Amino acid sequence: MKILPFVTLGLALVTGAALAQPQDVASILKATDKFRMSADNLQVETQINVLNADGTPDKERRYTVFAQAGRQSLVVMQSPAEKGQKVLMLGDDFWLLMPNSQRPLRITPMQKLLGDASTGDVATMSWADDYAGKLVVQEPCEPAAKTTCLHLSLSATRKGVTYQRIELWVGKTRFEPVRADLYVLSDKLAKQATFVMDKPTAPTMVLEMVLADQVGNHKTTHVRYLSRKTRQVPPEWLNPMFLVRNPPLE
């Protein structure tokens, strides 16, 4: 039996409408998040490399990120140039802790760590908790790609996020993140992100996030997740007044 073109189109629209329900988008985002954060409490060893517009290396830094449940994260800077510095995220509140300062300094999630990687890019690893969205369309993952993705449009549901709007493309079967356009409060496109997976045909985790600047220097910033392991930190590690004393964190 031959299916008429308008019937095929109608079926596609029905399928798209079903997927566009908010609860379904929330489920997709939860599945997408698992590729970046495999457990509620993680220790993630992270390396950031910045490349100039011509591809030559600029800077490199290492960070230990303790991503904890309930929108809590602690970033410990490991490179000699930043040794002793820490960033603490508790919900919408971000603090920078310097080794020679007696007071934690309030910062924003847009505060730069290195290159185009902001504090929020490194400390925040969940979209499902911070964004509501809708399915826009099924389309090629890249303009010339043969593979098809789900294009989701996400809007922030709280103030303490790095980006107010995200246009996100995810795999239509496993919902792994493929790429994203990242917009700031003024609705200006600030960065474009692409995600490198461990297994192209059957991905299980994100190995790297590549951020391309869309505003000024046109550098690229590679955020590599060197290792992940489940770890819940002691409660005092999430207290800025404890961290300001620069205690050893082992």
In short:
The protein has 250 residues and is mainly beta. It has helices at 5-19, 22-33, 119-123, 240-243; strands spanning 42-51, 57-68, 72-77, 86-90, 93-97, 105-107, 112-114, 117-118, 131-140, 148-156, 165-171, 177-183, 189-197, 206-213, 220-230.
Describe this structure in words.
Helices cover 14% and strands 43% of the residues. The longest helix is centred in the first third of the chain and has 15 residues, at 5-19. The strands form two sheets. A 13-stranded antiparallel beta sheet has the order 6-5-4-3-2-1-15-14-13-12-11-10-9. The protein has a two-stranded antiparallel sheet with strand order 7-8. The chain has helices at residues 5-19, 22-33, 119-123, 240-243; strands spanning 42-51, 57-68, 72-77, 86-90, 93-97, 105-107, 112-114, 117-118, 131-140, 148-156, 165-171, 177-183, 189-197, 206-213, 220-230. It has one domain (16-243): Lipoprotein localisation LolA/LolB/LppX (outer membrane lipoprotein receptor (LolB), chain A), CATH 2.50.20.10. It has four helices and 15 strands. The model is unreliable at 1-20 (pLDDT under 50).
